[in-house]
């Protein structure tokens, strides 16, 4: 059946098990469109990177949503006197949830349901602004709710490159994650801890990482969130590094999708 087939099958079964769960829109304001701008600081042994990333997400229906992003990166490599700046790689994501819980709310995770992503090499790899490759990802995740607004999000994702500028750029990895979230509905906020185990199929070894997440949305559609990630990486490339800080501001608008429309 293969690894990709197993991911599809596991995700499909898992999301069907919690079909009676209340929609996320009952806890937080929901919209059809989401505009986000995030600032990311990456600290690695090879140098620092500062990334400004605008992203647009549209909830096509409660079963389907899509997003696209392309950012501006400032790279400060170790041993180089000048900094490089310019457009970085682009990412598009298509997300499907059979249990119809998708909106454009900033809380709804990209790993909910079944998600397929594509990385496009729009950044200049020679200047350290991107990666000279095309990559795809396929994964699945599902939310499990518990008393006191405590939720779990088990997920699995497989990522691989299918066109590289150099054999050294080849990448294939599988990530297993377990998101733990405390939702504070009265103040429309959430706190999360996300441990992840990743297996690198190229070097045949695994690593461990974790993220702390804090977010809030307001009834008028605005939102803020922060993410701190610490991870052991076998072969850091691009933004896959040791320490990552992400600060995001978002605004959602439009009538929320209703059903599969």
The run of helices and strands is HEEEEEEEEEEEEE
The main β sheet shows up as: 12 strands, antiparallel, barrel
Class of secondary structure makeup: mainly beta
- The whole-angstrom Rg is 18 Å
Shape: globular
Quaternary state of this entry equals single chain
**Total count of helical runs of at least 4 residues:** 1
% residues in beta strands: over 45%
CATH T-level fold name: Porin
Note the gap between the termini: 33 Å
Query: Which residues sit in consecutive blocks of at least 5 with pLDDT less than 50?
Result: 1-23, 236-240
Total discrete domains:
1
CATH-level-2 architecture = Beta Barrel
What is the CATH homology-level superfamily?
monomeric porin ompg
Describe this structure in words.
It is a single chain. With 261 residues, the chain is mainly beta. It has one domain (2-252): Porin. Helices cover 6% and strands 56% of the residues. It is built from 1 helix and 13 strands, in the order αβββββββββββββ. It has one helix at residues 2-17; strands spanning 33-44, 47-59, 64-77, 84-96, 113-120, 133-141, 144-146, 150-164, 172-184, 189-200, 205-217, 222-231, 243-253. It has a 12-stranded antiparallel β-barrel. A hairpin with a 4-residue loop joins β10 (189-200) and β11 (205-217). It starts with a helix and ends in an 8-residue tail after the last strand. Residues 1-23 and 236-240 have low confidence and may be disordered.
């Amino acid at each position: 059946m293969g690894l990709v087939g197993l991911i599809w099958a596991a995700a499909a079964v898992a999301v069907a098990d919690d079909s009676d769960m209340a929609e996320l829109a009952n806890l937080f304001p929901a919209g059809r469109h989401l505009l986000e701008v995030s600032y990311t600081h990456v600290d690695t042994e090879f140098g620092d990177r500062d990334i400004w990333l605008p992203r647009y997400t549209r909830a096509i229906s409660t079963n389907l949503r899509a997003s696209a992003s392309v950012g501006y990166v400032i790279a400060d490599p170790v041993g180089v006197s000048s900094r490089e700046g310019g457009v970085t790689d682009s990412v598009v994501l298509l997300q499907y949830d059979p249990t119809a819980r998708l909106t454009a709310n900033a809380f709804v995770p990209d790993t909910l349901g079944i998600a397929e992503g594509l990385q496009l090499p729009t950044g200049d790899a020679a200047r350290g602004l991107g990666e000279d490759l095309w990559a795809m990802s396929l994964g699945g995740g599902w939310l499990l709710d518990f008393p006191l607004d405590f939720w779990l999000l088990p997920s699995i994702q497989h990522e691989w490159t299918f066109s590289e500028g150099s054999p050294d750029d080849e990448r294939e990895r599988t990530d297993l994650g377990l998101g733990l979230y405390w939702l504070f509905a009265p103040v429309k906020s959430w706190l999360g801890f996300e441990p992840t185990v990743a297996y690198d199929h190229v070097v045949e070894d695994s690593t461990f990482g974790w993220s702390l997440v804090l977010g809030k949305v307001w009834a008028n559609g605005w939102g803020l969130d922060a993410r701190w990630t610490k991870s052991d990486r076998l072969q850091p490339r691009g933004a896959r590094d040791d320490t990552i800080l992400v600060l995001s501001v978002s605004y959602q608008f439009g009538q929320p999708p209703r059903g599969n429309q």
